[in-house]
Amino acid sequence: MWVLNHRAEPVEVICGTSGHSLTNLAFGGPDRKTLYVTDSTAGEILRIDMEIPGMPIPRLPPTAGLNAQPR
After folding, report:
1. What residue spans define the domains of the chain?
2. Greatest extent of the chain over all pairs of C-alpha atoms, in Å
């Protein structure tokens, strides 16, 4: 996994265990500084404490799309 700065330049590379596949990631924790990564080879979820928080994912309001009318 590559960690990029605000100009999309690589500043850090995070490697998993040799021979394993890291397949997905998500930031969590109250400050979004905990990185969770799935290791599909071992069937594990790894946790990495990061210095800089991950970006939040924009979310739709809970009712968005539920009341949509067909055209």
Report:
1. 18-55
2. 53
pTM: 0.71
pLDDT in tens, 9-52: 999 998 888 888 888 999 999 999 999 999 999 999 999 999 98
For tokens 């080879």, the residue is 41
Distances (CA, A) of 28 to 7, 11, 38, 47, 69: 23, 21, 14, 10, 35
